[in-house]
């Protein structure tokens, strides 16, 4: 009897194994993840909050938690509390490495986004009629002519001084571009880098003489704005909501993300995207601080799914012009995928740039 029962039990167990196999086997256990914490520029918040990004990272073994900070203020944080820092350009990275005690860390530049000036449609038309910008017929993107614009700023021009502005009552007061704080925010700092280059006879400011030469104009660009925002997020949201200034500095990624993810809102209907004809490239630079995050930067740069998701959020993957162009083809009226007609310049050293920012705000 015992032998018969044993045989029956074995048959039942075997049947269960076969049933599981026929049903596709046991469910694969989820990948074990390690939790890492990073400090990032605010323009990347939506990317890291995206459920698809969260899943893609989990599939690769990561749970990523983030806090935001101005890129140029990250080196002032208690960086030992973080596994990585992810400023919006490469310039702050050496200071972050030094402050975190990881000088010489293997940084990665997963994606980048050029700076743009977003204009209300009527503001762009007035600027175009006064030869401060160029907008191609039938397009909603154009080029900000930095030389003429800076000349107008140096002369303290008001909107009312420009031909055609009288038809637009909302265009009044001093002509200026709303930027972020250049002492703490990457976009504000790189705006000073580009404008000081133009003001310094198209040469990177590299010494005290250059600072002294360009500081009066930098002060005109910054002081007229009043209170300065710590990041591009708030001015961009204000602009899209219909409030805020008629000209604001932003990242192309913010525009591209809005166009791809929320086209039905009509938020871009009254918007023209202006690419400054002189600019400083802004590669978002991943700085690993702990061993746990050492490979995360490379993953963000090279994993096909994460590259695809970066483009969804408006970023340009490194060596990814075809990816960006294909993904944004339906919104090409607003974007300059090849970045044609733009002069790329180097930024001053961190020391020089922060001295420029201090003088500009002073």
Features:
14 helices; 362 residues; alpha/beta; disordered N terminus
Describe this structure in words.
The chain is an alpha/beta fold. Helices cover about 40% and strands about 15% of the residues. The strands form three sheets. Strands 2-1-3-11-4-12 form a six-stranded mixed beta sheet. Helix 7 (about 185-200) packs across helix 8 (about 210-225). It is globular, with a radius of gyration of 25 Å. The chain starts with a helix and ends with a helix.
Largest sheet: 6 strands, mixed
Determine the N-to-C terminus distance: 97 Å
What is the overall number of helices? 14
Order of helices and strands: HEHHEEHEEHEEHHHHEHEEEHHEHEH
Runs with pLDDT <50, length 5+? 1-29
- Rg, rounded, reads 25 Å
Number of strands: 13
Helix and strand topology:
Elements: H1 2-22, E1 34-40, H2 45-49, H3 51-59, E2 62-68, E3 84-86, H4 93-100, E4 108-112, E5 115-120, H5 121-129, E6 133-135, E7 141-144, H6 146-154, H7 186-199, H8 208-223, H9 233-241, E8 247-251, H10 252-261, E9 271-276, E10 278-280, E11 283-288, H11 296-302, H12 304-312, E12 316-317, H13 321-327, E13 343-345, H14 350-361
Parallel strand pairs: 1-2, 1-3, 7-9, 10-13
Antiparallel strand pairs: 3-11, 4-11, 4-12, 5-8, 5-9, 6-7
Helix pairs in contact: 7-8, 8-14
Short description:
By secondary structure, the chain is an alpha/beta fold.
């Amino acid at each position: 009897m015992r032998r018969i029962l044993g045989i029956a039990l074995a048959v039942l167990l075997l049947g269960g194994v076969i049933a599981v196999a026929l049903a596709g086997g046991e469910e694969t256990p989820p990948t074990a993840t390690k939790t890492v914490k990073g400090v990032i520029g605010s323009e990347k918040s939506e990317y890291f909050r995206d459920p698809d990004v969260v899943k893609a990272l989990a599939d690769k073994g990561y749970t990523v938690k983030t806090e935001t900070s101005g890129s140029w203020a990250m080196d002032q944080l208690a960086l030992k509390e973080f596994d990585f820092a992810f400023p919006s350009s490469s310039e702050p990275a050496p200071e972050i490495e030094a402050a975190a005690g990881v000088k010489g860390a293997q940084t990665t530049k997963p994606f980048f986004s050029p700076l743009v000036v977003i204009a209300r449609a009527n503001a762009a038309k007035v600027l175009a009629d006064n030869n401060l910008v160029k907008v191609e017929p039938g397009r909603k993107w154009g080029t900000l002519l930095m030389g003429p614009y800076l000349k107008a700023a140096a002369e303290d021009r008001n909107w009312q001084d420009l031909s055609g502005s009288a038809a637009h009552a909302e265009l009044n007061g001093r002509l200026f571009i709303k930027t972020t704080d250049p002492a703490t925010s990457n976009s504000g700092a790189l705006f000073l880098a580009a404008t000081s280059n133009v003001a310094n006879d198209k040469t990177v400011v590299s010494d005290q003489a250059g600072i002294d030469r360009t500081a009066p104009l930098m002060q005109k660009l910054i002081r007229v704005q009043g209170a300065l925002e710590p990041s591009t997020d708030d001015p961009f949201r204000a602009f899209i909501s219909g409030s805020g200034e008629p000209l604001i500095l932003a990242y192309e990624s913010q525009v591209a993300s809005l166009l791809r993810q929320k086209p039905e809102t009509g938020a871009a209907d009254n918007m023209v995207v202006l690419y400054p004809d002189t600019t400083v490239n802004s590669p978002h630079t991943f700085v690993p601080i702990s061993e746990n995050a050492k490979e995360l930067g490379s993953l963000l740069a090279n994993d096909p799914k994460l590259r695809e998701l970066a483009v969804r959020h408006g970023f340009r993957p490194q060596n990814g012009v075809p990816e960006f162009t294909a993904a944004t083809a339906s919104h090409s009226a607003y974007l300059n995928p090849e970045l044609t007609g733009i002069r790329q310049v180097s930024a001053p050293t961190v020391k020089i740039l922060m001295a420029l920012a201090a003088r500009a705000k002073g």
